[in-house]
Amino acid sequence: MHNMIARTPGGKMPVQIPDDTDFLSFRDQCESQDGWVARYNKGGVTVWCRDEECKTLQKLKMRIVCKDVTAETLYDVLHDTSYRKKWDTNMIDTFDIGRLTVNADVGYYSWKCPSPLKNRDFVTMRSWLPLGNDYLQLALSCEYPPKKDYVRAVSLLTGYLIQSSGANCCTLYYLTINAYIKCMVQIFQPFSPQAMKKIYKACLKYPEWKRKHEPNLKPWRYPEQNTLPCINVADLTVQRADSLENIDESSVSEEKAQHHSDDDET
């Protein structure tokens, strides 16, 4: 993502809103098989990992085919924070902080981790773009005051690609590049094969729910509906993992992590 991050002489990395080239590059990564190794293929969800030369990074990609769901519905579900509170059982809180442009904002998300791990949270700059029959959403962590009792997680790049595959069917890709964390913390991240299935099930119920909850309110589609306070992108800097508290949770067993992951299966 060549335009999203540019390091300054002082070490700070200002956030730059992605352009069409960045969105196209992300779509290419989602569709490419080069260098990706399949690690999971079950229940309609495929998971790939990629070994990077830089061992401080973790790269993960997932895909699910969503039958009886339009690409537009899936796009709305990913944006609608009010509806997310209905289906995302891992979530503690989510809210929009402010808007940058008609298709970019800053948002907060926190999720539960099992004891003895501390709960995690993200603050991200998010941007989105309809591109032909595709819908894309990108996010990266930006600096924001920490919250007590949470460990701030860092996403160098996270995003979705939604591709229409018929009148009432679509495919969802999820791709993330994160800073490596000691222990199996990535198993607890809010997006897992089970979470992909939850998104799919949430999409099936969304049209009926939305009809009863401000059906015409979709500020991600209609920017004139956006009432968030404005934020200057020049005031944002990229959150770096080495600037955060170093939490070593390596004593947490892989078995306990896997058990928690299995508990999410529905």
Automatic annotation (TrEMBL):
Record-level GO BP terms: lipid transport
Entry-linked InterPro entries: STARD10_START (IPR041951), START-like_dom_sf (IPR023393), START_lipid-bd_dom (IPR002913), START_lipid_transfer (IPR051213)
A cellular component annotation (GO) from this entry: cytosol
Identification of the protein by name: StAR-related lipid transfer (START) domain containing 15
Database matches in CDD domains: START_STARD10-like
Domain of life, source organism: Eukaryota
Residue stretches of biased makeup (Basic and acidic residues): 253-266
Entry-linked SUPFAM superfamilies: Bet v1-like
Region annotation Disordered: where it falls in the sequence: 245-266
START domain span: 32-175
Gene Ontology molecular function: any one: lipid binding
Pfam families assigned: START
Organism: Sinocyclocheilus grahami
